[in-house]
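Researcher: Go.
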Amino acid sequence: MIFFGISVLVVFFRIVKYLFVMINKNMSRLLICSEHDISSVNMRAQLLSKNEWEDQGSDGRNSYCVCGNDVMLSTPDIHIHADDIDDVAKKFGIAVDDMIFMSRHKAASAIPTLTVHPIGNYKSADLGGKVGTLVKATPALMTDALRKIAVMNDTEHEVSFEVTHHGPYVNVPTMFIEIGSDESRWGDIHAAEILANVITTMEKNGYPNVVGIGGGHYAPRFTEISLRYKINFGHMIPNYQLENSSDDDIIRMLRLATEGTLTKMVYIHKKAIKKSEVMHISDLIESIGLEIINSKDLEFLV
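Model: Structure:
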């Protein structure tokens, strides 16, 4: 009888826990921590130290905790290979509006950098995700994060966007926030604290969303524009994606980027592209009903 009573209590508490998760399932953001990524783990530690988080248990592989409208999911998987992790969370009872992957950033230059970027693959999928498939961007959240990093950064780290690249594939609007650029920087506790503060305070705004086209991987022009004007960048198409691409392929990438950013507006980094190519790309943009915007069209940030 005692054993039976204990079993009933165990089942009861499991049901209560499940109902608690289901009742609170309409969370706004899912923060993803990879347990094999020291930058990710340090950002998680900083977040846990700043607020009260409630343990929500495990689905057998990933663990969950909740603070207000945020759910933090910790996984043993590497970020770029965590395809459909939003569906995994949903099956656990967690539905969200946006996802933020907390990650390290690797670059051959080893320049200390704090970055944010959207994800997906215009062509091949060498680093996770799906071939020729972009994940929905979260331009307002991501661009506000960039601005807040720039304000809070009191280190030697540079601050920049990265263009759209790598996996995983998910169905929820997603961004990465990263500490780079090599092993000597990944464990930087203060950098993790800065990004944790950014994650805690970043928010959406009503500025126009645009796709950026042209320039290099670190998108300095789009970073500069975002820090000066009321604009939100979503997906970005760098020069190396345009090179050796047919007109049909460029149009395909433009459609992917604008649909994934929920916009019809495109900003061209004209100084990074030959004048004749700017004219040609402009014609392609307008041929599919998209609008080109310039700095003079934008309001300055206060």
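Model: The first strand starts at residue 29 and ends at 34.
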